[in-house]
Amino acid sequence: MSTQPTDVPNPALGRLPARVLEAFERFRARGDPAAVEAVVMAAVVDYRPAGSGATRPIGDATLLIDDLGYDSVSVAELVFFLEDLFEVTVTNEDIQGVRTIGELRSCVARKLAEKPGAA
Amino acid sequence: MRRPQARGEAGRRLNPAITGIGLITPIGNDYASVERSLRGGIHGLEPVRFLGNPALPVKVAGTVKGFSVDSPSWRDWSWPAEYEIPREVLRGMAPHGVYAVCAVLQALAHAGLRPADVADDPRTGLYCASAGSPMLLHFNIAKMRAARGARGNPLGVVSSIAGTLNFNLAAHFRITGGVCGFVSACASSSHALGYAIDDIRLGRLDRIIVVGAEEMNADSLLPFAHMRALSGQSDPRRASRPFDAARDGFVGAGGAVALVLEGSRAAAGRGARALAQAEGWGQAADGYSVAASHPGGVGLRLAMERALADAGVDAGAIDHVSAHATSTTVGDSAEAAALGQVFTARGLRPRVSATKALTGHALSVSGAMQAALAVVSMSGGFVPGNPHLENPCPESEGLDLPRGAVEGAPAMVLSNSSGFGGSNVCHVLAAPAPITC
Fold it and tell me: Distance from the CA of B399 to the CA of which of A26, A39, B148, B421 falls in 20 to 30 A?
């Protein structure tokens, strides 16, 4: 009966666009920071509540809550997705310091750098 | 049970009308398909294999067609295209929540209501029943433990515990009149329906959506095999055969059923069509076993008698009994004993049908599904049969158990439910009366 996907590098990525899977593979193979950012941006778009926020391009200064319509629950979902995918732990204090896309990208980069064995 | 206080101007009790039904079931995902299956004795059971283990003694189950919700990831789920479920709603739901949203949308449309008609309406409530999602609970806790507690799915609680239906449906449909969940195992949605009847009679709410839903997968079903409660048969027609002397357990099922109940004034005010009247209900407990029914059907008999008294009718007014009968050895015998005391001992022989032969047993959905199927058959002018019954068990002697559907509309139906812990709940449903204020 089970149909759990097994053909993606991480089950959390299942059904995301192929370019996101490719970016994640580049990160895993070469630690490519640009690939991390591509995955983070895809997740931001994916977890954004429907029908909310501005439609202008998303940049580093874009605010998750005020511009993109995120609420506390959807921020928690986004953060868990990234934690699960990159196998990092984001603390409540970390989350409180993340208001913009730029701060989210920095937070993920910092967490990856702190991982044991990181270059 | 105390008589309800709400009465109309002429002293009539304001029993609610059932104005809409939504069906996501093993025997069909819409009213017409379900009626066709019910009338034709066409079951919805299929071969299944769980956890890749062909040695498991569970060979068939009541499957819901047209959906795919086996994965713990909402990204993998699919459902019929006519139902719209936003992604942010999916993320907090259990697999059976998908069935439930579809059933509610279908029931509202059947009642001539739009979702906007119930949204933010302080006179509309939502009563739900499900056992939660053992699969997602297991999945989320396993992930949490793998991370040594450091992280977990923030929606793990609301998507998996008993109550997940209430949380998600109330938010999605913007229910403001009241929302509640009922947990009494296989009598859960029966309790939801019963208390909905009372709350409308008492004038607390004008409209209540009652919904039961369950997913059917290894985590929800196999624990019942370990209780030795499931049939080990591989032929669907032999696996679920309530009241048969050779029955050997129930067949699990998934699905969702939603019922729209409306008070007379509210229904009349919008020109709604009544499908049936909810005339009364009753409950009683066995006080006997954590799982098994009292062998004498003591609690079920009392629940039936209370439902009849609440409806203000004698047993002789019932011309169709929709039995809970799940095809377990102990449960069916207990119900047969209770039916014998309420009906046979008084010289009464209403037709008795056990629709789980066709649907399998969808656990907490059972009572809502039986009520809905009773309305379908009553409206369609027939009594469902017992197509898998070959040799009735000795305890059912004296019961009228037709093998095929019998044409002729019953005027009043008694629908039974029993659940673990000895919960017994019965409803009396009647052909619709003209809706008036």
Answer: B421
For residue B317, pLDDT beyond 90: yes
Rounded to 5 degrees, φ, ψ at A46 are -65, -40
For A11, nearest residue in chain B (alpha carbons):
B73
Pairwise CB contact (< 8 Å): A77 & B218? no
Q: Give the ipTM.
A: 0.80
Q: Measuring CA to CA, how many Å separate B278 from each of A58, A93, B13, B273, B318?
A: 55, 54, 11, 14, 14
pLDDT (average), residues B432-437: 62
Min CA distance, B371 vs chain A (Å)?
29
Rounded to the nearest angstrom, the gap between the alpha carbon of residue B247 and the centroid of all alpha carbons in its chain is 22
Q: Which one of the listed residues B110, B172, B294, B324 is annotated catalytic?
A: B324
- CA-to-CA separations, B108 to B115, B192, B353, in angstroms, rounded: 7, 18, 28
Domain ranges (residues) in chain A: 11-114
What pLDDT does A109 receive? 93
Which superfamily does CATH assign the domain made up of A11-114 to?
A: ACP-like (1.10.1200.10)
Contact B49/A1, CB-based, under 8 Å?
A: yes
- Three-state DSSP at B292 gives coil
The mean of the pLDDT values for chain B is 95
Residue B434 has a pLDDT of 59
Q: Which of these is catalytic: B110, B361, B388, B427?
A: B361
Question: In this structure, what is the dihedral angle of CA atoms B38, B41, B44, B46, given to the nearest 10 degrees?
Answer: 180
Q: pLDDT digits over B331-357, tens only?
A: 999 999 999 999 999 999 999 999 999
pTM: 0.92
Q: Residue B46's closest chain A neighbor by CA?
A: A1
